[in-house]
Structures are given as C-alpha cells and as structure tokens.
Amino acid sequence: MQRNHTTIHIGTRRSKLATWQATTIKSLLEAHHPELTVDLVFINTQGDQILDKPLAEIGGKGVFTYELEQALLNGGIDLAVHSLKDLPTELDPAFTVGAIPAREEPFDALVSRNDAGLDDLPEGAVIGTSSLRRRAQLLAYRPDLRIIDIRGNVGTRLNKTHDPEGPYDATMLAVAGLKRLEIADAITEVLDTSIMLPAPAQGAIGV
Questions:
Q1: Fewest 10 Å CB contacts: which of 38, 60, 75, 93?
Q2: C-alpha angle 99-93-38 in degrees, rounded to nearest 5
Q3: 78, 145, 162 from 118: Cα distances, Å
C-alpha cells in the first residue's frame, strides 16, 4: 500500500483510554512536525471482543496487541499506540518501541463502592481485578480478601464496582488511566508501594 509521506496512520484500540493515548501522540507529532497529517485508525482486538473469560485463559496481554501488530506488518498503519505495561515482554523482532513520552504516575489505585480504604474493607470483601500481580500482592497484605476476575474498560469496571447489586466491594485500577480520563476523583486510596508494587512501565505510553 503506497502512502503519502506526509500522512501518518496511528493504530489504536477504541476504548476511551486508548483513544486518549493515541490522540495525545497525534497532538505531539503534529506539534513537532506541522507538515504531517496524522489520522487515527481504530482496531478491534480479540481482548476487546472476549469479555467473559479471564485474560490468562484467552492468551494474556497479547490478545490486545495481535491485531495492531498485524496492521503494522501489512501496512494498514504506520504506528501503534498502547499502554507500555500491557505490551508483551518480548516484542517480535519486526517491531520496536520507537518513543515513550512523559510518564504519568505509576501507582495503583483502590476504588471501593463505599469509599472504604484497603484497611477498612470488611473481612472477606470482594475485590475485582484481572491482574495476577495485583491479586498476589493484595492477598499477601490481606489474605482474608476474595479476589475475583473483572473485565472491561475503565468506565465499565467503575460501573461494575459501584453497582449496589454487583459482587464487587472494590476494584483496582492504574492511577494514570483515571487521571488521563479526568476521573481521578473516583480514587478511594492510592496504595503505597510497600503494599502494591506497580507493574513495570505502568503509567507510560509506548509508540
């Protein structure tokens, strides 16, 4: 596929956070290279389509990047933008992380239905997370908690958590995503790193 060299196509998932991240990269490119036209190309990934199974069952983090990688390989896009922490640890040799803009806060946030902090949640409280890292650290700190899987984008997880008929007393989300979506007021508690060590590259965007 032949392209006009002044047009750059950025591939991104459709979620609000993914769109925010891709739009930010678009703005940075246009600010530094006024001659460029930058378009967003929205790509639906397997991870976006399958929401009723834990990530570990459907292939882990790669289910959010495979379709983006294929679009890069076939020339459908020139760049892909994704949360750096959610990229596979080992990239295909055909790709490289070409840029990482300024990182947002790397910490993890607890969002609870009744505004209770981690120490104030009742015994046996249910916390929703699809992250094995968060699950392990939560149970190391409070073995009495029940950890169950939760899927969906940031807004979906917040709605599930605040649903009075739902199973979740709280959920875990990255501070960075909540700040970028301007809903940081949803945070009940930012967990200290002595309790919850963030994922490598959490809060960073990879291009």
A1: 93
A2: 40
A3: 43, 10, 16
Contact 168, 113 (CB under 8 A): yes
Beta-strand (E) ranges in the chain? 7-12, 37-42, 79-80, 82-83, 108-112, 126-128, 146-148, 170-174, 189-190, 205-206
Query: Interior CA angle at 138 toward 134 and 140, to 5°?
Result: 120
Q: Which two tokens stand for residue 155?
A: 């807004």
List, in sequence order, every residue forming a beta bridge with 62; answer none if it has no partner.
Answer: none
Question: Which one of 86, 92, 120, 169 is the catalytic residue?
Answer: 86
Question: CA-to-CA distance for 88 and 74, rounded, in angstroms?
Answer: 20
Residue 86 designated active-site: yes
Q: At residue 164, what is the residue type?
A: P
Of 75, 70, 74, 77, the C-alpha closest to 92 is: 70
Look up the pTM and report it.
0.85
Q: Taking the mean position of all CA atoms in its chain, how far away is CA 137?
A: 19
Residues 122-167: tens digit of each pLDDT: 999 999 998 999 999 999 999 999 999 998 889 999 999 999 999 9
Over residues 49-86, the pLDDT tens digits come to 555 555 555 455 566 688 899 999 999 999 999 999 98
CA dist., res. 7 & res. 199, Å (int): 34
